[in-house]
Amino acid sequence: MWDYTDKVMDHFKNPRNVGVVESPDGIGEVGSLACGDALKLTFKLGDDGRISDAKFQTFGCASAIASSSALTEMIKGMTIEEAEKVTNQDIATFLGGLPEQKMHCSVMGREALEVAIENYHTGRTSKKILEGKVVCKCFGITEDEIEHVVRDNKLTTAEQVTNYCKAGGGCGGCVPEIEAIIERVQKELRAAAAPAPAKPRTILETIRLIEETMEREIRPTLQRDGGDIDLIDVDHDRVIIAFRGMCAQCNVAEFTMKDVVEAKLREFVSSDITVEEAKA
Question: Model's pTM, two decimal places?
Answer without folding.
Answer: 0.62
